[in-house]
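BUG-311 | component: ligand-complex export | severity: low

The export step for phosphoric acid mono(formamide)ester jobs runs without errors, but we want the raw record kept on the ticket for reference. Input record follows.
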Amino acid sequence: MTRHLLEIDDLSKGELLEVLERCSETHPPKVLAGRGAALLFEKPSNRTRHSTEMAVVHLGGHPIYVRPEEVGLDVRETAEDVARTLGCYHAVIAARVFEHHKLERMAGAGGVPVVNLLSDQSHPLQAIADLLTIRAEFGAFAGRTLAWVGDYSNVARSLGLAASMVGIGLRFAAPDGYGPPPQELARFRELGAPQAVSTDDPKTAVDGVDVVSTDAWYAMGQEEEAVARRAAFADYTVDGALLAAAAPGVILLHCLPAHRGEEVSDEALEGPHSRVWPQARNRLAAARGAIEWLVTHSEPTGATEAMEGSP
Ligand code: CP
């Protein structure tokens, strides 16, 4: 069986904890020794590209970055054919795509683990890095509460799943129409955040919480909505005044890149509560732990297995 990581709940709760433990290994096993990893990007990236490339190096493998114009998923050839081909040469395929269904189709076709490096639905490696940052700060997850302030984005969804899977309480603050849909709130409650709530009042959401997280009000590909979104989110900037309503030891997370002065103030991003740089650093450990876990829990199938001389 081949394991994939397209969304954080592709892992069970126990498996997520195993991945977190692997992220903390000081001497990770060279599970990719002599093997390749294809890293496809349809969109720009700073943190994800570099952390994933270096994670592959730490695991003894050889990363090959595939430029957006080279990918041509469903343009030059189908997403399935891209994955089947890359599975002939690589032990893992990781991809950043506009449309999540392309990852699902690649996972169904490739025969090697497929890792989501961000899609329109989710960003699981970011969520793992966020959990590592929270654990480093507080030592444990139980009894902690996280408030997400701003757009209920792909990043928010994955963090909501990850947090609820480890028992962190959840609150969301967003203008009407930009918060989590009721069925996703229900999923968080069922997974392990029974009090998960959504409000349009940021102060209510952050009251006494341990973690405040936010992200850009518009994602790559939503730039044409920027004017409308800036107006809708004008009262949702995470700044010093908002953080003062949280617990005294609150930490601020932001997956970056930040739009300083929009979703987060300069003062907050550079202030004593900010953990955005440890969070960015943890992207490497997250990618390394997740890829190591996926590779060691997968049996090569399909094209890779059929290749004469495959390791
Ligand atoms: N947080 C994050 O995914 O950053 P990049 O878009 O730079 O990879």
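Assignee comment: Attached the raw record above. The first strand starts at residue 36 and ends at 41.
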